Amino acid sequence: MNRVPVIVLGGIIVAYVNAISTYRETKVKTASQGQLIIMLYDACVKNLDQALELLKLNAGEHKNPANIEKISRAILKTQELITELTVSLDFEQGGEIAGNLFSLYTWFSKELVEANITQDGSRVQTVRNLLDDLKSAWVEISLKSSADTAGKAITGLDIAG
After folding, report:
1. CATH number assigned to the domain comprising residue 149
2. In this structure, what DSSP letter does residue 16 have?
3. Engineering a disulfide at 78: which of 28, 29, 47, 84 sits with its beta carbon 3.0 to 4.6 angstroms away?
4. Least confident span in 28-37, 93-102, 128-137
5. Is 1 domain-assigned?
6. Strand partners, 14
7. Domain that holds residue 123
């Protein structure tokens, strides 16, 4: 349950909303479909980076059971994000590309299950690198799409009324 901090001023209760949370919410609500996909990839990479860092800390004699739980949470969060990417696929418009992405996402999920069970950093690293490559491709697509859309908007503008 999320609790919102409350400040009492002159008998009036004023809810304090975390500015960062509000910014993120606005960013998501106003993002294009391409930007949302990039955000999902970013979150995947961030979670897998966290898992990799914890796996390094847990290597050798320095095993900490608390880190194992944190590693698992980061990997599971990534799997949830990959599920979001999977359900966002449009097989009618995406055709072969959507099918290939579906296969990749399925493979990522299987790899992450195995990596989580075995605490295998190399599997996590492989998935992380591939997700980062896909994110880079989406960034390029998004930039090109934005440039194309911006150009069309400018040429279609009728200021004469």
Report:
1. 1.20.120.340
2. P
3. 47
4. 28-37
5. no
6. 7
7. 32-155
Contact status, residue 139 vs residue 38, Cβ threshold 8 Å: yes
* Residue 6 β-bridge partners: 15
Backbone φ and ψ for 160, nearest 5 degrees, come out as: -75, -25
| Report field, pTM of the whole predicted structure over 0.70 | yes
Tokens of 70: 């944190």
Angle, helices 33-57 vs 19-30, to 10°: value is: 130
Q: Could you give the number of structural domains in the chain?
A: 1
Element (H, E) at 7: strand 6-9
Across 70-109, b (16+ Cβ under 10 Å) vs e yields: bbeebbebbbebbeebeeeeeeeeeeeeeeebeebbeebb
Distance CA 35, CA 96 (A): 22
